[in-house]
Batch of 4 targets.
Target 1
Amino acid sequence: MNICKDRAFEVLKRLSFSRIAGTPGELEAAELLKAECEKAGVPAVIEAFEIDMPEIHEAKLTVTKPEVCEIRCIGIGKSGNTPDEGVTGPLLYIEDGLEANLIDAKGKILLLTGMAKPEVLERMRKSGALGYIACHGSIYDPEEMIPEIRTRNERRKPGEDANFPGVVIHMTDAAKLLNMGVEEITLVVKQDCDKKGTSHNVVATIEGTEKPEEIIAFSAHFDSVIYGTGAWDNGTGSITIMEIMHHFIKNPPKRTLKFVWCGSEEIGLCGSKAYCEDHKDEMDKHLFNINVDMTGVLIGYETAVCSCDEVVAKHIDFMGKVEGFPITTKVDMYPSDSSSFARVGVPAMTFARLAPKGGAEIHSRRDIFEVLDATAFIKTVEFMVKFSEQVVNARVCPVPRELPKELKEKIEKTAKMMGLDKKDEKKEEKADEKKAENK
């Protein structure tokens, strides 16, 4: 195998910096990945796409009764706007936002445990509440991490104009609000919900020697979240598919390989969605997607989640036993870029090395290079190469095109919940204009 942990970790060190969706840092990372591909002799392109980048002008949360005090918060992008003076009402703690929690929600400001799932958000909107407060972090976070609240955007359905302003506070401040016995609270959110930005995918191609018209796509997102370097999530996935690319440079594949480094995964799988949309005319040629989201953590365990026929999950389990590589498998949707491929009918899967509770953490300053291990990383890559070779060079593609009925139903349910089943007319108009320009 032409894989090298020293080469991979040298690239990972250079990639371990803030790469937030739509920022100059994300573009810098895209250019780094493109340069690495070209240095290896593989042509690569950077493909730009539009993303939502709402701009928060003001977010303020003030307890007005029984005593006046201000609570640290950040606005939730695309949630909506309050009047200049804000909205004022009693605070109601609704826990997980079940229907029984929302019986008396009208005219109140709602405090929710964690973040609002789409179905909970819909219930809150219909309840007659004035706005909501979501929570982030842990009550055990050290003092220096409490101000580091991760930015969030709502996922609106195309054309939806719902106005339900929200903010995020730290979990310790949520506990403070409940212990205070707050009677009244004022919420202010002012933002430009419709502001757009530009993100990027990096796509490298190795042409197949025997069946160039058939495509196997390897993917990994390369963006990170605020406050962290994203070394594990997902710098490791990015260098994993880079090493797989190096292997197939020296061992030319029978089928064409696409290596897709996806931008803006952290704000809703935007890069993989854009890739599938921009390449929709060749999606029927994509036989399989192998996605990688986090590898190489020192204390961890291997898993493969297959958004495809169960024959793939069973084969990986069988192969793991043959190779002595411990890995669990299942058929399901995984909250990463493989889901975008499955949604357009391409069989897909995600490899990951995850950490147990109390081990390494993602989505915070704790996602650092020091929790990783090159030996664990290379074991995963070696197994992935052996599995990939079987699919890439098979005489007949062994992955059934048809997705299981249960999986299709889950995809449809998720798409409906997120509004992905409805056409975005503005996006379609832009796509048509782009196609006309190319002609």
Target 2
Amino acid sequence: MPWTDGPLPTRWLGQPLWHLDTVDSTNQWLRTAMGSGRAGHGAVVVADRQTAGRGRRGRVWESPPAGNIYTSVLLCPPPERLSGLLSLLAGVAVVQAVRDVTQLDAQLKWPNDAVLHGRKFAGVLVEAGVSPAPWAIVGMGINVNGAPSAHYPQATSLAHEWEGGMVDAKTLFHALLVALEATYEEWLREGDSLVVERWSRMNVTVGHVVEVHQPGQLPWVGRALRLDADGSLWVARDNQPVKIVAGDVSVRLPGGGYASGNCW
């Protein structure tokens, strides 16, 4: 896949852009490039295949070489703007790009999954720090043309859900960079409320009954109420609102499935 052929449709995102055939993890590769001084704000790496892709809480992200998108972006926001909302911001960009290219009704499941018809097709993993200056590496994996794995019945791909068949991964990748660049700039100008509002309009979590898994606790069931200004999720437990922080929980429907497009 010639990801780097021709100019990018962005102004600063993807300057520079590296295309790798195979990498252990795009997040780890970009972090190493940042540490050596090769990568700064706006740098992007995209790979045809990952051998050690990761999701939240150390989960494995399957990354076969099948026309999918495995990419990481380095962002260096102002010190006062380094925020947990970056994961939600990236999710908004993923869904916007998919909608623009395929017209599929892609949606977001808290905190970092993108879903179609109740099945996950994309995930976001953000790693951040403040030394020597604030930085955030935003990793995004999108199942574009790969066949859904029998090992993961809750996963799908865009091609599997799209009547048009195979999706042009390069076109989608470029649309993702455009959406991410624009949303990031708007977030810097307008504040966190912009991300909260856009994510809330795209989500399939708020208003649903969900099963909450927290380390060291038995799962419990409640109704997702709203997204907090900092990106956390408020869930009603026994009629009392409980604030759930991203990274500490996994939210599912009772029984383990992803939310459909309908509330109940």
Target 3
Amino acid sequence: MAQQVTAQRKKLLVMVSVGLMAALVFVGNYLQFKIPVSIGDVTRVHLGNSMCLLAGLLFGPGVGGVASGIGAGLYDLFDPVYIVSAPYTFCSKFAMGFIAGLLGRAAFRKQGKARVLQVVMAGVAGQLVYIFLYLLKSYVSLRLVGTASQAALIAIVPKIATSTVNAVAAVVISVPLSIALRKALSRTGFFSLMNVEKEKNGYFNPVTISLTVFCCIVTLFFAMYLSSSSSIKAEDQKKIDALQEQIDLQQKQLDFLAGELGVELPQPKAAE
């Protein structure tokens, strides 16, 4: 009976941890300022990534990945600019929290300077994975809507700069916080959650396999959606171009007729 209560308590701790860290990721995304880019959407400098890394470094890959994905995905759903990319954001932020948690769990078994260095490397690794996925999504999105390759590369340059700033800030904030909070939480029930040993089946268990398949499916559907959207826009643009050609042709005919008759065409009055 005691074992059953312990298992139930651990499930409760997992749910509380996911909810708490997801809320911090969500709020951290609002501590931001947006930077317009020449082509595409906008880019941002924010504190959401620091909370994603903190979730992974504190509670490991499972809780860290899920909390990061949920918190960042909810932020996108509440912002009209990013609502379409919410599924992809869930996947990329999940990857960041998962990688940071996976490497951070091993790092916290070290002592002294070796621990700090490995925790920093875990945070950097999580950020590098996310930056790659984020820039890949930005580039592919621009290409799918018909942007030239060189123009798409130029458009993501500001995003590289802001992503680097976000990454540095995230590591600087999350690493000291994770070390300090682990000491504080070592006297609570959360400490058992932060020190879960690797399962015999490893991380390739039904849960992680299902999440991986889900992320791949979401990414595929996101690409298909962008592709269909770009096709519709291309058809609309063709219709607009055809109408413009007809208007230009009629204007030339009117100008020629006016010249032959020696009259001046009346000009439209400006709107008052």
Target 4
Amino acid sequence: MTHILVVEDEAKLAQFIKLELEFEQYQVTVALDGFTGLSSARETKPDLILLDWMLPGISGLEICRRLRQTGDRVPIILLTAKDEVGDRVTGLDAGADDYVIKPFSIEELLARVRANLRREQHEDTDLLQFSDLTLNRSTREVFRGQRSIELTAKEFDLLEYLISHPRQVLTRDQILERVWGYDFMGDSNIIEVYVRYLRLKLEHQQEPRLIQTVRGVGYVLRE
């Protein structure tokens, strides 16, 4: 069941939103202040957050910033009475995905929730993960934990092929054909060269090795 976290200090409004979301078959957690909201976001890992801007403790804007600083990409919809263009820009720059102005109709809010969840599900198809390694096909971003890793086009292609087949031993011929093309006429040692490049970047901070050599066969992505 899709889990939504509602961080809203107006208890009656929070309860109203909770009931409407539960009627739509969402699992809902409510937090009534900023610190509880931030803690719930980190501990429960919701699929989406409805986040009031003005909260006791710390603001919704600060919660948004802190989550994004730690690499959390959960969709966030800000709920606020601030309706100036500058306020919207500030909210989006802090990392919010959407913005709903109070007072709002529950139909609009539910539509925004559905739209942001659909967007997240679409992006998930481009997101490949193995252990603490994350690769995004659409943005061509790579992370080891929270550390961003810059790769060349061919390094990215090789890693994408490996992470698409986790724990599967891939032969040198398979890798050459998939990553360099069946008509590649260069040095066959090119694979070893690029595996070495990838290992240097993926293990730059002494992280455990993920690309393993299978002697006489090829390579495999595994712990």
